[in-house]
Amino acid sequence: AELDRSKSELSDRVTRLLAEADTITQQLEEAELKASTAAKAQATMESQLLEAQAHSEEETRQKLSLSSKLRQLESEKDALQEQLEEEEEAKKNLEKQIAALNQQVTDAKKKADEEVEKVNELEELRKKMQKDIETLQRQVEELQAANDKLDK
């Protein structure tokens, strides 16, 4: 009886230990599965992190490139603005010169018109004097002819 009871206790104990072993084995498998899943998730996250870092570096390179281009374009804009201001100043100077030359042309035309008027007046005076001279010459000739007649 004692032997049967010891045998029965041992049998129960073996059954319990086997059940515990099954539970531990099952827990181990679950833990290994979780560890495997966690390792895959970690690998995925590391890959995503590397991708994000590469993307961030590319964005930084593009920002630097755009910033450089922006500075270059601003410099070109400033140079063009300065050139435009210089050309506008040169245009103003040319417009002043044109206005002065136009005034000189106007003055020269006015003076030329006055000179033409004087020439016309002098020409009229010359013609009148020529007529007067001719008239006087005729009178002289007539007087000489009359004088010659009187002398005879």
Automatic annotation (TrEMBL):
E.C. numbers: 3.6.1.15, 3.6.1.3
Basic and acidic residues bias spans: 71-80
Name by which UniProt lists this protein: Myosin heavy non-muscle isoform x2
Keyword presence, Hydrolase: yes
Gene Ontology CC entries for this record: myosin complex
Residue numbers spanned by region Disordered: 32-92
Record's keyword terms, sorted: Coiled coil, Hydrolase
Taxonomic source organism: Triatoma infestans
Hydrolase recorded as keyword: yes
Pfam families named in the record: Myosin_tail_1
InterPro entries (alphabetical): Myosin_tail
Coiled-coil residue spans: none
A single GO molecular function term of this UniProt record: ribonucleoside triphosphate phosphatase activity
Myosin tail domain: residues covered: 2-152
